[in-house]
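pinned: reference chain
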Amino acid sequence: MLFRSTGLGKTQLTGKVVEIKRSGDYLIMHVDTIEPVQWRIRAALSFRDLATIFSCLLRVATISFLLSPVQWFKKAAEHPGEF
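pinned: its structure tokens
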């Protein structure tokens, strides 16, 4: 997983989701960044946030990406360039 932030300039962070757990009315997603720094990033996702994520996942472009045989057998993803 790649991250960019306007606050970090052109710095790109590499990380992975390590845990999702419930806390009251939120799901807390923990992401560990690996490069260039080691951070633990937490995001609190509300029900509406999850509804938005599911709505995006149900779009044709996302479904075709997930069902593409090319994606299933790629060893490594190509860098998306500027995002």
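why pinned: The first strand starts at residue 2 and ends at 4. The chain has one domain: 2-73.
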